[in-house]
Design brief:
alpha/beta; Rossmann fold; three-stranded mixed β-sheet; 13 strands; 26% helix; globular
Length: 206
């Protein structure tokens, strides 16, 4: 069973639909017992870092997420969910994140013809043998393409946790894993066969 955390931050239905398409049992919930009783946990999200942290604290989900991570339960942050796992974000100065991982969330710089937010497909450069990227479809080649929607990006403090990077005028860390904690800035649930393979890899983690 996969618990998809509901904290009014959107993007829940598409994640649920992708999990169901893979034949995985899942539940969209903010109930502590259902989350801690699940085999895996997904923290999705779109929107503002500060608002999202307010919502997590309002429902006391920040405590539940930390508890699940401390128990060793596989946890996957998607898009804003990745950002929330880190220390904080330039988007919401002074707002503390979940601090499960170390790094900074910074704004994509203006200039160079870049459109912000960054919306669309970009290739990934894979590194450090990420478990989510095992056995990708052969058509993905060495640089699989995935779908992004974001204005802020991660600069991880520890390069060894970074499993994928991309370029959008600047190099961006876009997928990480450390122990049982995984995260991606892009949307695997909207990234066709590559994204579904990633979600299957997550769902079948031992």
């Amino acid at each position: 069973m996969i618990a998809i955390i509901d904290y009014d931050a959107g993007n829940l239905k598409s994640v649920e639909k992708a999990c169901l398409a893979l034949g995985e049992a899942c539940v969209v919930t903010r109930e502590r017992q259902k989350i801690l009783g699940a085999d895996k946990v997904i923290l999705p999200g779109v929107g503002s870092f500060g608002t999202a942290m307010d919502q997590l604290r309002r429902y006391e989900l920040d405590k539940v997420i930390r508890e699940a991570a401390e128990e060793g339960k596989p946890l996957l942050g998607i898009c804003l969910g990745l950002q929330l796992l880190f220390d904080g974000s330039e988007e919401s100065s002074g707002v503390e994140g979940l601090r499960l991982l170390e790094g900074e969330i910074v704004r994509i710089p203006d200039g160079g013809g870049r459109k912000i937010p960054h919306i669309g497909w970009n290739s990934l450069s894979l590194q450090n043998g990420g478990r989510l990227f095992q056995n990708l479809p052969t058509s993905a080649g060495k640089e699989p393409y995935v779908y992004f929607v974001h204005s802020y990006y991660l600069r991880a403090r520890d390069a060894s946790i970074v499993t994928a990077v991309t370029e959008y005028g600047v190099p961006m860390d876009v997928s990480v894993e450390k122990g049982n904690v995984f995260a991606c800035q892009f949307h695997p649930e909207k990234s066709s066969a590559v994204g579904l393979c990633m979600l299957r890899n997550f769902a079948t983690l031992a």
